[in-house]
Write a structure and sequence with these properties.
The protein is mostly helical. It has 17 helices and no strands.
């Protein structure tokens, strides 16, 4: 997952810092980032390709190469306010390319990981993604501010290709060619319909669409760092490498929590950790020390909730057509990231950073309480034990 994370990290950390220092408003910057992140919403449209055409390993290689090429293209694009439309399109293309890294990995996990270890698998999945975000964002920002954005693109691209070579160690998953692609699409559609008819799976779908532990503020930390009077090198270190490392650790811990105490405790409990950290940061003074502590604590909380998110998805999708169903549900799970990133940008420009953070915390807490009530009703009707094969 590291190549995907590197691409996303450049878009959500390095790029916002560069844009706000080249005349872009926080709201415009947030909109560009949100459009890029929205590629994760639409990946279910091309998700069936991983299940119906080439093997998972081949799709992973294609995804890694395309993601690297798109990152280089982005680094060669001028960051000017007049060129906002072109820049937005290239950002979106780069994130579409990175989804082709994620799709095969979801299939590998569904086919190669036994059920009792899927929580930990989800943790390591998110550790790779979030660790890559830290590397792509932190190293990308440091290289950009000390050398150039072109140098940053070249170094990150080489790193992505090297990390992608690990796929050679994974046993490939071939497509079963029993039927025509048209027939398999029909069967896939029936499988997806069967999945969403299960009450607990429908609850999972609703749950992941809610603004619970979205981690949206992380997409704007570099853009609003000036409010805490934090310099560029500190922003690069804190929002990049250190946040990536803590998010990765949080993901592993979150995966363990999901296996030990269950998906619901992990998901909603870890979401409340994020909300508490965000609220605390909103009421503390706007100083570099508070920025550093808050961003790092937020990164750990995001790691926790993202691992729980992956575990919940693996619980819901079963094994058949796993890449497609993982793509569908994870696409829906990125809706809160997109709309909360846009909301945060609006809240910042309309009011302040502190208002933005407190609003995110309150919204998350309210929806967690609603989900706890819904879970209680599902448990009372013995509907939480139903799953799909």
């Amino acid at each position: 997952m590291l190549p995907q994370g590197i691409s996303q990290g450049f878009v959500t950390i390095t790029l916002p810092y560069l844009l706000t220092h080249n005349g872009f408003s926080v709201a415009t910057t947030a909109a560009i980032v949100a459009v890029g992140v929205s590629a994760n919403i639409w990946r279910f449209l091309w998700g069936p390709l991983a299940d119906l055409t080439l093997s998972l390993r081949r799709w992973y290689v294609i995804g890694a190469l395309a993601s690297t090429a798109a990152l280089l293209l982005l680094c060669l694009t001028p960051f000017t306010v007049k060129g906002v439309a072109l820049l937005t399109v290239i950002v979106f293309i780069s994130q579409v390319a990175s989804t082709f890294v994620m799709l095969p990995v979801g299939g590998f996990m569904a086919h190669r990981i036994e059920a009792k270890k899927k929580g930990r698998a989800g943790g390591w999945f998110q550790a790779g993604s979030l660790g890559g975000v830290g590397l792509g964002g932190g190293a990308g920002l440091w290289l950009t501010t000390h050398y150039s954005v072109t140098v940053a693109g070249m170094v990150l691209s080489i790193a992505s290709i090297l990390f992608a070579l690990v796929v050679l160690l994974i046993k490939d998953v071939q497509r079963v060619k029993n039927n025509s692609i048209a027939a398999e699409l029909v069967m896939m559609g029936k499988d997806i319909l069967a999945m969403i008819r299960i009450p607990v799976v429908l609850f999972v779908i609703i749950l992941i669409c809610l603004p619970i532990g979205s981690g949206a503020a992380a997409n704007l930390w570099s853009a609003i760092a000036a409010d805490w009077k934090t310099d560029a090198d500190t922003v690069a270190l804190i929002t990049g490498v250190l946040s990536g490392a803590l998010s990765a650790v949080g993901s592993v811990v979150g995966g363990f929590i999901a296996d030990r105490w269950g998906n619901w405790v992990a998901y909603l409990g870890c979401a409340m950790v994020c909300a508490l950290v965000t609220a605390a940061m909103a009421v503390l003074p706007l100083r570099p020390e508070e920025y550093i502590a808050g961003v790092l604590a937020y990164a750990f909380g995001v790691g926790l909730i993202y691992a729980a998110f992956s575990s919940v998805l693996l619980y819901a999708i079963g094994r058949k057509n796993a890449s497609t169903k993982y793509a569908l549900l994870s696409s829906l799970g990125n809706l809160p990231v997109v709309y909360m990133t846009s909301f945060d940008g609006w809240a910042h420009d309309k009011h302040s950073s502190q208002y933005m953070l407190m609003a995110e915390a309150v919204i998350c807490t309210l929806f967690v309480l609603l989900c706890i009530i819904a879970l209680g009703r599902l448990r009372a009707k013995n509907l939480l034990l139903q799953t799909i094969d």
